[in-house]
Amino acid sequence: MQGDRAFPGAQSAFEPAGQGAEQIDALAFVLTAAGAAVFLVFCIALAYSLTHRRRASGPQTAESDRRSTRWIVTTGAALPLLILIPLLFYTFHALSANDPANRDRSLVVEVRGRQWWWEVRYLDEDPARQFVTANEIRVPVGRPVELHLYSDDVIHSFWVPSLQGKMDLIPGRRNVLWLQADSVGIYRGQCAEYCGLQHARMALQVHAEPPDRYEQWAERQRSPAAPRADSAGQSAEAAFLASGCILCHAVRGTPAGGRLGPDLTHLASRATLAGGILPNNRANLLGWVANPQALKPGSKMPSVPLAPDTLHAIVHYLMGLE
Ligand code: HEC
Ligand SMILES: [Cu+2]
Prior knowledge:
Blueprint: H1 19-51, H2 62-97, E1 108-114, E2 117-122, E3 131-134, E4 136-140, E5 145-151, E6 156-159, E7 167-169, E8 175-179, E9 185-191, E10 203-209, H3 211-222, H4 231-242, E11 272-273, E12 278-279, H5 282-290, H6 292-295, H7 308-319
Parallel strand pairs: 1-5, 4-10
Antiparallel strand pairs: 1-2, 2-3, 5-8, 6-7, 6-9, 9-10, 11-12
Helix pairs in contact: 1-2, 4-7, 5-7
The chain binds heme C and copper (II) ion (CU).
Heme C binds near residues 245, 249, 300 and 306.
């Protein structure tokens, strides 16, 4: 299912687009089908026994006692075990196939749940090659990605239903999940554990891309923000750097180094703003910077009063962070 145009991307566990979600989908189907079949047989047996009641003919004998005991043991213990044990082993099998330990771990992404957005850090053995982004995880199609899930505030839950089952992000703990997208596309995810006022507006997108496009994107993300060449760009940058924004936001390559809000170094390359609630375009950026509390009440970004000129200059600067 495609979402509305502003927010493309499937978000359905019944439309798996990767191995993890496929295994869960198959497991859910098998367990539901087996449960339904058992229930059907049970209903038929119940209906039969209600309509074919025989009046006890003659006194109970040792023979009829033995017969009913045999029935009770077969249908009450042996039959359920015969059905449940294979299902149990099938479940174990499906779970172990979904274990991150059995995957290639060359691409590791750290995801930190924040009230109410996602910080996404691409790890690399060479620290200079690490980079940070927000609310958007790009992955090369067909390659497993290991996710390390953290939280510093409250419990969140990472769930991209089309790609993998959900897993909690718990303060003080590292949880590990993997996912792999098998076809190019945008997959929507959502925080799945109530985490405060704006929990419902804490979404993310996974963009699965061909490997070469992914590499191009990653290479760009690694680089610091490009210096502004024109005078309008330079004065816009000065307006941003003189504002309170830099207390909370970082733009690599500039003195802005705040850590409370999303890294803005390549903001313009992202599809959405503020936990996936707004498509990233000029109008929404203006609206967001002018008054985030109107769009996401309670958000940890305060509405900062800005003169109209300053507001436009800052938005101009942000639009150039490609
Ligand atoms: C007190 C800290 C703080 C200050 C000051 C602040 N922000 Fe934010 N900003 C945040 C937080 C936290 C978020 C994430 C909000 C959310 O999605 O719930 C955010 C989100 C954003 C986003 C969306 C980023 C994304 O990828 O979704 C933009 C753009 C932004 N801020 C720009 C600014 C600008 C411009 C200023 C200065 C006028 C500013 N911020 C001042 C904390 C702050
Ligand atoms: Cu939440």
